[in-house]
Amino acid sequence: MNLLFIDGEVVETQVVEAAPEVVETIVEIPAEGTDVVAEAQAEAQPAGSGWTFWIMILAMIAIMYFFMWRPESKRRKQMEDFRKGLKKGDKVITAGGIYGVVKEVNETSLLIEVDSNVTLRIDKNMVAGAPMINQ
Questions:
Q1: Distance of alpha carbon 59 from alpha carbon 49, whole angstroms
Q2: What is the pTM of this model?
């Protein structure tokens, strides 16, 4: 017996345990050799298995190649060709945002003139491109 207080009054409660309900499930198993067995086995396979999974994986790889890897390799090749073709007098912008004119080209570095009598030696890999605006 339990006591419960509601609005200042004592109310007596009793706890009654209920018997657990028994639920029966009946499963019919068809005889061997019927088409129902083949249908049940086909339904048991997960939806993404088999050849559709491999087609989706190949499609994803193709999409990544054409939209990510290929354009990036083209840009990298264009930038490499630009850096190899630099010559004295070309206007460049560095990765740090410094505009200058090439005064000397070495194998791995450039000497650029930033202002009158102000020159900087930079690595060729730090040339970001040619400026879009006229200096």
A1: 16
A2: 0.53
How many whole angstroms separate alpha carbon 14 and alpha carbon 82? 90
| Amino acid letter for position 123 | D
- The three-state DSSP-derived secondary structure of the chain is CEEEEECCEEEEECCCCCCCCCCCCCCCCCCCCCHHHHHHHHHHCCCCCCHHHHHHHHHHHHHHHHHHHHHHHHHHHHHHHHHHCCCCCCEEEECCCCEEEEEEECCCEEEEEEECCEEEEEEHHHEEECCCCCC
The tens place of each residue's pLDDT in the chain, 135 residues long, gives: 566 566 666 656 665 566 567 666 666 665 665 565 566 666 655 555 678 889 999 999 999 999 999 999 999 999 999 999 999 999 999 999 999 999 999 999 999 999 989 999 999 999 998 888 754
Give dist(CA 130, CA 98) in Å, integer.
11
